[in-house]
Structures are given as C-alpha cells and as structure tokens.
Design brief:
- By secondary structure, this protein is mostly helical.
- It has a single domain, classed as Flagellar protein FliS (Four Helix Bundle (Hemerythrin (Met), subunit A), Up-down Bundle).
- Helix 4 runs antiparallel to helix 5.
- The model has no long low-confidence stretch (mean pLDDT about 85).
Length: about 140
C-alpha cells in the first residue's frame, strides 16, 4: 500500500524538478528567493515551538540558499557596485540568520526575512526588457 505522505512528497519533488528544468534564469533566481523565505518561515515556526533541530535545519537551509545560490549567482565583474552591495547584503542576512539560530530568537530572523523579501520583490518586478539585456550580456 502507498504511503500518502510519500506519494505527495514524491509528486512535489517531481514538480519542483520540472519547474527548475523549464525555468529561465530570472525565474530560477526567484525560486531561490522563495526557497530561502520558505525556510525562514519554517525557522520562525520552529522558534515559536521551541523545536531546536527543526530551527537549525531550516536556518542552515536558508543560509545555504542565500550564500551558495543567490550570492554565488552574482556576476561580480559585470554587476559592478550593485553586485558588490548585494553580496555584502547577502552576507549580512546570513549573519542575522546565524545570530537568530545561536540565540534562538526571532528578531534577527524577521529582520533577515524583511530584507530578503524587499530584494525578492524588486527582482520579481524587473521589466522584461531589463531581464533580456542581463541574460544576453551574461551569455556573451
């Protein structure tokens, strides 16, 4: 007999893999933002519930997405000052998350979520013309 939870989990994994394979670069970055924000929300809930292992796992996941995904995707050469500032901001957000994890408090976590949400929303609002210019430049 099929475990319903396992079936749903497998479907979600396939759905995510399909979305990643078919997404353009702009959408992939948006997915990273959303993944980090989702992990942060899970960490916030874990702090409220005093669930230390879940909190640590969620914060570690968020930090990994921010540093290994968002920060690593910055084109430091072509991005100039904006890329430098985003890199520093990603480092700051990761530091706030680690602070929240170490002290088991939500204030730095909420600050990090707010900052990341601002960047995510700006990214989502990027006009199509600007997206195309960014990708053509990177592929050249």
């Amino acid at each position: 007999m099929l475990n319903r939870g396992t079936g749903v989990s497998a479907y979600q994994q396939i759905d995510l893999e399909t979305a990643v394979q078919t997404a353009d670069p702009h959408r992939l970055i948006l997915m990273l933002f959303d993944g980090a924000l989702m992990a942060m929300a899970q960490a916030e809930l874990a702090i409220e519930q005093r669930n230390i292992p879940q909190r640590a796992a969620a914060i570690n996941k968020a930090v990994a997405i921010i540093i290994e995904g968002l920060k690593a995707s910055l084109d430091m050469e072509a991005g100039g000052e904006l890329a430098d500032r985003l890199s520093a901001l990603y480092d700051y957000i990761a530091e706030r998350l680690l602070h929240a994890n170490a002290l088991n408090i939500s204030a730095p976590l909420l600050e990090a979520m707010g900052l990341l949400r601002i960047i995510r929303d700006a990214w989502a609002e990027m006009p199509e013309e600007a997206r195309q210019k960014a990708y053509v430049r990177r592929e050249s």
